[in-house]
Amino acid sequence: MPWRAAPRAALSSPLTLIIAAVTALLACFLGTAAVLQASAAGGAAVKYQSGLACPDYYGPIFSKDNVPAAVAPQVIDSVRRNAPAHGFAQPVTSRYTPYLLGTEFNGDPNYKVTIAHRDQAVQGHLDLVDGTAAAGGLLLGTVVAKAEGIKTGAVPKLQGAPFPPVTGLYRDLSDPAPRWWCSQQRNAVVSRLANDPLDSVMFATDGKTFDDAIRTLGVPAIATLHMSFYETPPKTISEAEDLLERSKALIADVKADLGARGLGDAVVGSLPFERSVEISNQAESNVLISILPLAAISILVGCAGIGTVALQWYQRRHPQLRLLSARGSGPGALGLLAVAELGLPIVVGGAAGAALARLLLGVYGPPGELGDGALLTGSLVAAVILLVSLGLLAGVIAFRTHREFELGRVRSGRRKGVKLLAIFPWELVTAGVALLGWTRLVDYGKGSRLGNPLPQVDPLALTYPVFVVLTVGLLAARLAWLGLLASHRARLWSRPALQLAIRRLASARAPVTGVLVIGTLAIGTLATGIGIARGQEEALQTKSAIFVGAETRVDTESVVGTGKVALPSGITGNTTIVGELTGTGNVVLVVDPRTFRRGATLARLDAAEVDRLLGSLSSPGPGIPAIRIGTDANQKPALAAGLPEARTIGEMPMFPIIGTKAGYVISRESLSAAQLNAVPKWSLLSGSSMTQVTEALTSVGVATAVNRVTRESALDALPFYVVSWTFSFMALLGAVLGVVAVLSLLVAVEVRRRQNALAGALVLRMGMRPRALLASHLMELGTLSGLAVVIGVVCGISVAGLSVPRFDPATFLAPRSALPNPTPLALTVLAVGVLVVALAGWIAMRSVRTARTAELIRA
């Protein structure tokens, strides 16, 4: 029975098996990848949000100000008793007294201190420089201790009541505080700019010492009570939601417990990570909804590939199918014969595609963990694709055999149908969809604003690039079809290699136009996806660089900017000082040309041009030499009250800190000492971390202001990442379609192997050189691949260039997103195209060299 021998018979055409398996692999790969991409995006969003939150903010927070001293122990006891039942470890409790005015050290009653206690603080989270934390007592900060000469063993007093003794000196917490202290920044860190230098936070070495101190001193209430849990950061949305549900249950139990004691309002439970979970869920939904149309397109392409394999199998098995039909086999049985022969390769290829999608997730997908059920869902999607593929394979064969062997050759109707499908203007339909997507894309960025955590979602706008590329591909294919129809008029026998290439293309118009459409769509989609994804990644880097001006920006006291205090030696190598003036309609940046390039980040600006203009800021002449920033041709030269007008020595479209606003950059050497003293704002731009900068300034007695920012924290990067993750799937789709296009080209060469072998052998016998025949094949294949590469790259880059600014999730901040350098991508695609053409040409020539002319003629 042919059905029983079908798996062995399939080995007679290994290329067909490979094509069937690879087609199923690609379809299942894309279907599974869409599910995994969305789930990984959710995990990456949770990871990003976890990095922004304080490490004790993933679980519940119990806090309240002005808690009566007698009530606080009951609140702490309730939380500690209920926490284990909900899977939480013991909470970290923080307690702070109000500032105790008139605290006395060494007979001086002018100190103001807070007594504090935090669980685990003395176990590695406070840097003890003198004394010990083992004995019960208080730890005093070194700022006050060194300034006032206070030693360990001192016993402070408050209106005659003694404190516990000072048993150790700790290094004051830096501003900003270390990450473990993140949630305690307001209470545990003393801002030296806003507070008197004699202010200090004294940490009790244990809870008993704290309780004894407030009892002895008669402190009626705890200024701040804070209880939190240091949980492992959630890696997936399901983990975050489970943590959230357990937190809600714990808060409810604590509230009920305290309510039973008549203390229902003694503490407030909160869920600071709840908003982060909502944003992560939204990020996953955005990515999934955005890539669903692309995933549907990819699966349809895979199904079309299975249909093509079915038609090729039908053509190759036509005599056997006619014989079996004549013996009584029905269309359904013949369709099952195709499944018996090609089903195993399709199933194996599909399973391999699903597995490959999981293995390569780290290459193409977001850097996040998969959520619960993502692998199962992806496997189910792959299974459905396999069932549809097998059903399509059987259905195509059954339909063809039914039409040909049971209804007879209804040539007129079929020809009319095929002709109608061929002449139907499909490109007008796709152009209409692309136009509809463009109308949505124009308004896509209007929801971009400060405080909006994620960009809006409009799947139709996201399909605009794909349909533009598809429209161009269909239009190119139609023109190629018409050109090949008219190619019989070509008379180029003086160049036989070229003439033969044209005739071969004309004899295979359908495969040629099909490969051209798929190739153009693949390359165009790849260029668009990579262009938009990388464009948003570069936009994030550029916007943060221009906004901050450096890796770190810290506003500082004027004594640093005016030169009264020298920069600390630890940061001088990569730090510069800039001043800022406003009030005349222009933003005026006062820079030091000699050190500006050490600390500033230029982003897209031409470094050589910036150096040239900075060097010209000392040029002699009337007014103050200045670099004009912005594009307003009518910009006024006024700088600030009491300063001469600006004399423009050059122009730049944007500049760090100023951005694209109207402004000027001047040299500090152009200003007198009195004018420098009048500059209201001075900032340090540094390549060092925030901790390094603040510690260096503190070491020379300079207090930093609250205005400080780093490139990492300046912008919410998640909206940029979501756009990038979405279009990385489009790039993946383009890469897979590229593989399909290569396979289609190789299949087209293989299908015409006998015809090409016979024609090639005959022309060689007629005197054509093998080199000329190879050149003919390379002209044929090179023309086809070259058109696909050129049209795809040009169209993809153009569409990406139009789309990148409109997908910008932060249009409120200059500069707008721009297309990254497309040259590397274009060169890579060109190199791959050359390799594919060389391989196809080698296959074609190999069939000619191994051909047996007599057998081919008899066949």
UniProtKB/TrEMBL annotation:
Q: Which residues form a coiled coil?
A: none
InterPro entries annotated for this entry?
ABC3_permease_C
The residue ranges crossing the membrane are 287-314, 334-361, 373-399, 420-441, 461-487, 508-533, 718-751, 772-805, 825-845
- Write down any Gene Ontology CC term: plasma membrane
The source organism is: Amycolatopsis thailandensis
Q: Where in the cell is it found?
A: Cell membrane
Domain ABC3 transporter permease C-terminal span(s) in chain numbering? 727-850
Domain of life where this protein originates = Bacteria
UniProt keyword Cell division present: no
Give the protein name, as stated in the record: Permease
> How would you describe this protein's topology in the membrane?
Multi-pass membrane protein
Q: What is its main location?
A: membrane
Keyword terms of this UniProt record = Cell membrane, Membrane, Transmembrane, Transmembrane helix
